[in-house]
Amino acid sequence: MAEGWTNRNAPSIEDIERLAQDALEGLPGMFLQQARLLRICVLDFPSEDILESVGLSDGFELTGYYEGVPLTEKSISEQPLAPDSVWLFRRPILDEWVERGNVRLGELVTHIIVHEIAHHFGWSDDDIARIDKWWE
After folding, report:
1. Alpha-carbon dihedral of residues 46, 49, 51, 56, nearest 10 degrees?
2. H or E element in which residue 87 lies
3. Three-class SS state of 89
């Protein structure tokens, strides 16, 4: 999929999934192997449970979410019940993309994927913000 979007139809869930997979495969080798173990899921909106877990009530306020136990906190004595997942939310992503107007959709999806994968590696939002000034 091209970085720009020229199709007359809004990008579908499958389109966002392809952009997310492209972003994942573009990670540096030292992160790629672990990142490939993540399940990437795309929905139109976050569930009420996810919104509640991050203290939000408006589904348009959340573009991505990491669900799992960061690698820095994993224990071999506690086996996970489900794979760690990165959730992307299509409608909030599309709204942010249009609102920004100065980034390609692939760039935005890549940024969100990298941010959520950083949580998988044990980085906090504050850690990420010190390095990544995207949201300013």
Report:
1. 160
2. strand 85-89
3. strand
Q: Which residue has the tokens 């992160």?
A: 31
CB contact at 8 A, 64 and 91? no
Of 20, 44, 21, residue with least CA distance to 95: 44
Distance CA 67, CA 46 (A): 12
Please list the pLDDT of the chain residue by residue as tens digits (136 residues). 445 556 668 899 999 999 999 998 888 888 888 888 899 999 999 999 999 999 999 999 999 999 998 888 887 777 767 789 999 999 999 999 999 989 999 999 999 998 899 888 888 878 777 766 665 5
What's the order of all strands across the beta sheet hosting 64-67? 39-43, 85-89, 64-67
Question: Of 66, 40, 36, 71, which is closest to residue 54 (Cα–Cα)?
Answer: 66
CA dihedral over 43, 51, 97, 110, signed as positive or negative: negative
DSSP letter at 41 equals E
